[in-house]
Structure formats: structure tokens, C-alpha cells
Amino acid sequence: MTSLPNEARQALILPISLFNQSWWVLASAIGVIIGSTLSDLIPHLDFALVCLFAILAYEQFQSIKRYFPIGIAVIGLIVASLFTSDWLLLVAITICMLMILVRGFWMQRHEIGESYDQ
């Protein structure tokens, strides 16, 4: 979504977000059901998800050349690794989501403040 033009992004953001959320919930439910069986058959399967996110982050950076998402990911990983090793990915993603929300609220307040100044 971040590499699309604004017009296309506005029209597609809600349907894609709903589909994406539904897909993750369904895949997570299936993963919980068959995950314990597969982990015995395929060693280091849990590392595949970390690799997927690393590849997605790299591809996003290559297409839009923004440092903010990579910076958030690195900060989230460092902070999460200080607190846990068992739930590292979940904690890092939660930290990243919180930082994105804080940035969004800060930018919104900043834009509202500028409109009142003019």
C-alpha cells in the first residue's frame, strides 16, 4: 500500500486491510491447530516467520526508500530483546505498532496546530 499513488491507496486501503486482517486471523488459527505437529517434522519452522518479515521490510525499503519503518523495526527489536527472548517477535511487533500510533497522533496534532496558526 505504501508504494501506491494516493488515489489508488485511498480506494484500496479498507478492503485490503480487512482482507489482510482476516487472512492473518485464519492463518493463525490454522497455525495453532497444526503447528505443534509440524514443529516436530520441520525443525526451525518458527524462524521462517522472522525471515518473512525481514524480506518484506527489505522489499518495502527498496520500493519507497524511507528509513522510518526500518528504524521502528530496529528499535522495536532492541527494546523487545531487553525484555524477553521467548516472545520476541510478538513484543517487537507490539512495540512497533505503539510507536506508529504515537507518531500518527503526534503528526495529527502537529498538522492541526499548523492549521490554527495560519
Explain what this protein looks like in three dimensions:
With 118 residues, the chain is mostly helical. It has helices at residues 6-41, 46-64, 68-83, 88-117. α3 packs across α4 (88-117).
Give a concise summary.
The chain is mainly alpha-helical and 118 residues long. Helices cover 86% and strands 0% of the residues.
List keywords for this structure.
118 residues; mainly alpha
Query: How many helices does DSSP assign?
Result: 4
Note the run of SSEs as H and E: HHHH
What is the helical fraction, as a range of percent? over 70%
Q: What is the distance, rounded to the nearest whole angstrom, between the alpha carbons of the first and last residues? A: 32 Å
How large, in whole angstroms, is the Cα Rg? Answer: 18 Å
* Low-pLDDT runs: none
**Can you count the beta strands?**
0
Mean pLDDT: 83
**Coarse morphology:** globular
Largest sheet: none
Q: Oligomerization state of this entry?
A: single chain
Helix/strand-derived category reads mainly alpha
Proportion of residues in extended strands:
under 5%
Layout of strands and helices, then pairs:
Elements: H1 6-41, H2 46-64, H3 68-83, H4 88-117
